[in-house]
Every structure is written in C-alpha cells, then in structure tokens.
Fold:
Amino acid sequence: MSKECPKGRHGKKSNHDMINLMDNVDQNDDLRYNRRAFIKSAVGASMALGLSTVPFSVRAMIGIAEPDHDRVEIIDLARLPEGEAFTFNYPTENDPALLVHTVKGELVAYNSACTHLMCPVFYQKEKDILLCPCHKGYFDVSNGQPVAGPPQRELPLIEIEVENGKVYAVGRQYRHG
Amino acid sequence: MGKKVCWGVIIFTIAINVVMLQWTIEAYLGREYEQTLLYSGVGIVMAFVAFLAYGHLRKIEYSSEKKS
Structure:
C-alpha cells in the first residue's frame, strides 16, 4: 500500500497552505543537527586541536636530542675590513649566513635568509643596515631585529668568537634580543 | 558539576587549545623546544579535560532522561 496521501495533502508538493507551513521542519535534520551533535563536534574540535600539537612535540624531542652546533672557522679577520660582509654557511651547507664587520667596528653574524620569504639579506654599509631587496625588508645590523618592511621575526643570530685573528662560528640562537 | 559547567569547560578548552596550537607552532619554528613541549602538554591535558567533561555531561543527561 502506498504511503502517499491520495489527496496529496501530506506530501511536500502539496499546495495546501497549512502543509507548506511545515516545509522547514525535517526530521532527518532534527536528528542530525541538534544540541548533542553540536557538543560532540565541539569536543571533537577541542581534542583535535589539542592532539594536533603532538607532532610538534615529537619533533621538538628529536631536536633536543640533537648534538650542539660545531665550531667552524669562517674567515681571517684581516680579510674583512670594516663596512664589508662575508657570506658563509652555518650550521649546515643549506643555511646561508652573513658575517658583517660593521662601519662601527662590530662583528656580527646572522643567517641571511629573510624571515619573511627566505630571500637573501645583504649588508648596506651606507646606511649600516641589513636589507632584503625582495620586499624591502630592513633589519637592524646590531641585533638582527626587523625595523621596516614585511618581516616580523628577527634573523637567527650566529654566535661568533675571534681567536688568533680568525673568526669562528660556535652556535646559533633563533630568539634573541 | 552541572550541565552548564560542562558546556563552559568544553568551550573553554577549545579556546585554550586554539591558543596552545598557535603557541606550539610558534615555539617550534623558533626552535624553543622546551616551550614547545610545555604548550603541547597543556593542549593534550585540555583535550583530555574536554573528553572528561563530555563524558560527565552525557552521564548527567542520560541519567536525567531515565528519571523523567
């Protein structure tokens, strides 16, 4: 026996006014989108957010276990007069870095990949500042902090030592200053 | 602990976990591994708290349904 009402009054296609008033009520939606479904989704979201931090902590534990950076010779200090910069790689061959002998006579070194979009950073001795030419990002040469343009984070600082007229890279700091 | 408290706890854990995820990523990218572990730990604890609050809420709701 058909469930359809012979007069069509209970069907969705009915033109009857009092039946069309009920068009917005759908039992399936009531069962699917209700208060309990909402709280289930909320709990699921909270757990997903909390557990999505786990891969980062696993990687962090691996990072803690890694050995410290090596001590690497960069250049003879005599070959780097004031106002000049020297490009090298530290701590790996894939990490370009810049050793700067500033016009004020300071020796500083940073990883030279801009913290905005990884373009190489150059030293401008006229303004005594580090410049990323891709998007005009400027970094303070004395501390590596961004001073203008799109970069928001400081350049990683490479710790250096001068011994017997030679400059050595001995470590790296990501957050500093 | 009533129903409203359970709701509040669950919403609170969502807010905390959003912040913890952001801080964890930021600390990880900044190679601050100790802080990464701290924020991640807080996120995991909050996820557990949300689950417990949900379990408690279900218990209250179904037991009150049986009574009525």
Summary: The mean pLDDT of chain B is 91. The interface with chain A takes residues 7, 10-11, 13-14, 17-18, 20-21, 24-25, 27-28, 30-34, 36-37, 39-41, 43-48, 50-51, 53-54, 57, 61 of chain B (CB under 8 Å). The radius of gyration of chain B is 16 Å.
